[in-house]
Amino acid sequence: MKIYYCSRTHSQLSQFIKEIKKSPYGDDVSVTTLASRQNMCINENVQRLKSLTLINDQCLELQKSKKSSSTKEKQPKKQKQASCPFYKVERIEHYRDTILTEVRDIEQLVNLGKQMKCCPYYGTRFSIAAAEIVALPYNTMLHRSTRESCGIKLEGNIVIIDEAHNLLETINNIHSVEVFGSQLCQAHSQLSQYIQRYRNKLKAKNLMYTNQILFLLSRFVVYIGESKIFTINDFLYETKLDNINLFKILRYCQKSQISKKFFNFSFIMPMFLFTKFFYQVPEPVQNTNEPPEMRSPLMHIESFLKALTNADKDGRIVLNRKNLLSVSSIKFLLLNPAVEFKCIVNEARAVVVAGGTMQPDGHVIPDNNLLTIALANGPSGQEMDFTFKSRNNVQTLNELGHVVVNMCNVIPCGIVCFFPSYDFENHVYSHWTTSGVLKRISAKKKKCKYSEDAKITGAILFSVVGGKMSEGINFSDDLGRCVMLVGMPYPNINSPELKEKMEYLNANYQCGPDGKTAGQIHYENLCMKAVNQSIGRAIRHQNDYATVLLLDRRYQRPSVAAKLPGWIQKDVKNKNFGPAVAAISKVCLFPCVLGHPIVLRTIED
């Protein structure tokens, strides 16, 4: 029996491996970690490509070159193509046996691969069969074809999904496929050349399927010039593709592996001729939206065709027109993640979903290690209202500045202040620079450069909810004794994709006990999930303690407080500014009395 441990990021996987090393089982268990080529490839010629897509394509091309060169050893006149020097089966097998003798994180696996001159990416995949614990990213586990290509078998095994508050969103993102105009044009061009070159060698059935794919691509390009949302069936009918059997086309693509034949295929036809032939869109003065680079775009388009085989109610087709056809896109939006997760639940012996903000279990810290205060007013009595309409009010921004300055005076350690958006953070920062608030903050908290004084005063970090600092980054101990949340980070209600999701939920699920529709509940949950993750940055182990300051009058509503994790909401206190400062002062005496070390962590957005 194996345990598959899944998390969202590679850094979280490394943290998990470190915890295994600390445990009593670290010396007796065989562990392997899977990661992307971008993290594990040691071929410098491939790594310098930077783009994950190009790295994947180049790796597959080098393997193809190796196979083709080995079959043509008897033809000395033909120049052999370059192959990856690290992809050697004997070395990979030796690497596999070595990594299972000791628990190693991703960095150590890569370093070992360099020492043994062996590919860590494939070496770790070879080790799956013999490993007892396999740590892997979400994408590898939650995508069926990726899971199967890695040889991951769930039957009789246990799946643990950490940070599971991201689960539904991740499944939606993995199985939602977006194709850009440039990819459609390039795929059409390559396929046209392929047919011209090999028409006489292709069987009639294969020629029929390739012509059908060409027709599909041409219809997609015609409709990519619109901005519209379709159901799957309506889209197939509108584009005149409802009489084409997509299942047979996908089966042909899989058996023939036609997309892999285009890695080294010359791109003769100028793209602008194809673009002008189908649709003319005026070019903008400057194009900032670059489509992803891809050597064989047909591989990506195959994923889109597969998405079109989903049930009509489970997804939508979103056409997104831009000024330039190459960056216009057509996207399949998955609305029902249950259809993709069901197979994992059915196959595995047990599935465990875990997360610090999930029910029903509490947190590892004692109740008195966390002080959570919802603050509706500042020191002068000005209401803290950071709704979209009121957030730029000068009096409110000044009041927020007074609150932050007072917290800097009271809290001698690190403070992390989260804003609902980058635009609002920049606006507040500019206003405080002009009004002198930042100068007052700097008198207590260092912002940019290291200073010995910071060991006493700590530092303050301004960040954005949903950004890199709000999830996956630990501000344990004195790095973060206070987390301040300014406003509530509701997503853009006018987003077409969010609207479709809310309509889908309203149509398929009943209203809540309070009369709110399923779409409304989902919208609120998106906001509070982001809030909960930001709060959790400061509590990282059982002896940690911190203060959480919720700066918005809306946090005092019972309906909002009810969406906080159980271990937080039971002790949320609605206070005025004076009593709040007094309560926080008592908490912040602890590091001074106990002499805890204060470490500077200075980052400024």
In short:
One of its GO terms (cellular component) is nucleus. By secondary structure, the chain is of the alpha/beta class.
> Which structural class matches the secondary elements?
alpha/beta
Query: Helical content, roughly?
Result: 40-55%
Instruction: Give the full name of the CATH homologous superfamily of the largest domain.
Output: P-loop containing nucleotide triphosphate hydrolases
Strand arrangement in the largest pleated sheet: 12-11-13-14-10-15
Low-confidence stretches: 71-81, 266-288, 448-455, 589-605
Determine the N-to-C terminus distance: 46 Å
- Strand % is 5-15%
> Would you tell me which CATH topology of the largest domain applies?
Rossmann fold
Biggest sheet layout: 6 strands, parallel
Protein name: Helicase ATP-binding domain-containing protein
Family: Belongs to the DEAD box helicase family. DEAH subfamily. DDX11/CHL1 sub-subfamily.
Pfam family, one: DEAD_2
Keywords: ATP-binding, DNA-binding, Helicase, Hydrolase, Iron, Iron-sulfur, Isomerase, Metal-binding, Nucleotide-binding, Nucleus, RNA-binding
